[in-house]
Automatic annotation (TrEMBL):
The gene is hisC. SUPFAM superfamilies: PLP-dependent transferases. Pathway: Amino-acid biosynthesis; L-histidine biosynthesis; L-histidine from 5-phospho-alpha-D-ribose 1-diphosphate: step 7/9. It is an enzyme of class 2 (transferase). Coiled coil: none annotated. Keywords: Amino-acid biosynthesis, Aminotransferase, Histidine biosynthesis, Pyridoxal phosphate, Transferase. GO terms for biological process: L-histidine biosynthetic process. PROSITE patterns: AA_TRANSFER_CLASS_2 (PS00599). InterPro entries: Aminotrans_II_pyridoxalP_BS, Aminotransferase_I/II_large, HisP_aminotrans, HistidinolP_aminotransfase, PyrdxlP-dep_Trfase, PyrdxlP-dep_Trfase_major, PyrdxlP-dep_Trfase_small. Homodimer. It comes from the Bacteria. It catalyses: L-histidinol phosphate + 2-oxoglutarate = 3-(imidazol-4-yl)-2-oxopropyl phosphate + L-glutamate. The lineage of its organism: Bacteria, Bacillati, Bacillota, Bacilli, Bacillales. This is Histidinol-phosphate aminotransferase. Its EC number is 2.6.1.9.
Length: 359
């Protein structure tokens, strides 16, 4: 048996260590995981009640057309139901898009330091990668536009960007879209959209009326706290959505996931509280980083990307891990999920100790 040659150059996604693994390895009683950008406040309490009382028959397939959820999301966004496609998390939607649109005779443009699944699945389809380095932690849209040619099928913009938390503003995005040929699909990954509180963050839904080659991706995994249910969605032109539905697996979102998402969407007050708490805790981090000369990017997500001068990202990661704190290391820095107030305060004390030891 032989898989595609390009698969041999890839590695499967490796999640961070579990809390139990770290407990055993370092003989610790308490472990705090701030590595995967999960909502530290969980989800609306109404979700547990809904999945406990509205139990479907598990012998029957879920609603393949996501009828009720589609109606709820369409109303929430002010779009039509035929502009929506649902997926098992955004990872599956990324896979769908790439399977539908990329091949060995095409290319795709993306930032070099961004969500890795764009790159991963493009390689599986043997498409050419055109990766543009970030500029001061932000998408270099001018260079990305220059990389587009007649063989470009998809351009990816992660906004806010994962892992840096930086963002493309309204005017920058509109200027970029005006340069992109109509045959090129621009995918805006807005997984952290709800956390973006800055005034000039793009209002992207209205742009769909002007650009049929635009697809917006959003998810229930982050601000809504439903990562364990795996449910995301795309918003685009009805003609595009209809074509993408061909690449979607039947019954790809479970009945429980649909129920959870519907219920979570009905409790926007809970989401707004978590967003406000996240913004408040981010400001505390910024003050701490400034005081201790830790470099960082201001973030529009529920995470922050840092560097401690004189220490590698692996050294920072390991120092925290040995004290029971799981974060995410990248070649050029460390990403920390913003936790609850007590977690953040304790982590800042540990970071202060690490900085002191380094000095």
């Amino acid at each position: 048996m032989q898989v595609k040659q390009q698969l041999l150059s890839l590695k499967p996604y490796i999640p961070g260590k579990t809390t139990e693994e770290v407990k055993r390895e370092y003989q610790l009683d308490k472990i705090v995981k701030l590595a995967s950008n999960e909502n530290p406040y969980g989800c609306s309490p109404n979700v547990l009640e809904a999945i406990s009382t509205k139990i479907p028959s598990f012998a029957i397939y879920p609603d393949g057309g996501t009828t009720e959820l589609r109606e709820k999301v369409a109303t929430h966004l002010g779009v039509n139901g035929d502009q929506l496609i649902f997926s098992s998390g955004l990872d599956e939607l990324i896979q769908m898009l790439i399977r539908a649109m990329l091949s060995p005779d095409t290319n795709t443009v993306m930032a070099k330091e961004t969500f890795p699944q764009y790159r991963h699945h493009a390689i599986i389809e043997n498409a050419e990668l055109r990766e543009v380095p970030l500029k001061d932690g932000r998408h270099d849209l001018e260079e990305m536009a220059r990389q587009i040619d007649d063989k470009t099928n998809i351009v990816w913009i992660c906004n806010p960007n994962n892992p840096t938390g930086t963002y493309v503003n309204q005017s920058e995005l509109e200027e970029f879209l005006s340069k992109v040929p109509s045959h090129v699909l621009v995918v805006l990954d807005e997984a952290y959209f709800e956390y973006a509180t800055i005034e000039d963050y793009p209002k992207t839904i209205p742009l769909l009326n002007k650009y049929e080659n635009l697809l917006i991706m959003r998810t229930f995994s982050k601000a809504f706290g439903l990562a364990g249910f795996r449910i995301g969605y795309g918003i685009g032109a009805p003609t595009l959505i209809k074509q993408l539905e061909v690449a979607r697996l039947p019954f790809n979102t479970s009945a429980l996931a649909q129920t959870a998402a519907i219920t979570a969407l009905e409790d926007i007050e809970f989401v707004e509280k978590t967003i406000a708490a996240n913004a408040k805790e981010l400001e505390k981090y910024y003050q701490f980083f400034d005081k201790h000369q830790i470099s960082y990017y201001p973030s529009q997500g529920n995470f922050v990307f840092i560097n401690i001068p004189g220490l590698s990202s692996d050294e920072i990661f390991q120092s925290l891990l040995e004290k029971g704190w799981i974060v995410r290391a990248f070649p050029n820095g460390v990403r920390i999920t913003v936790g609850k107030e007590d977690e953040n305060e304790e982590l800042m004390k540990i970071l202060a100790e690490i900085v002191t030891v380094k000095l």
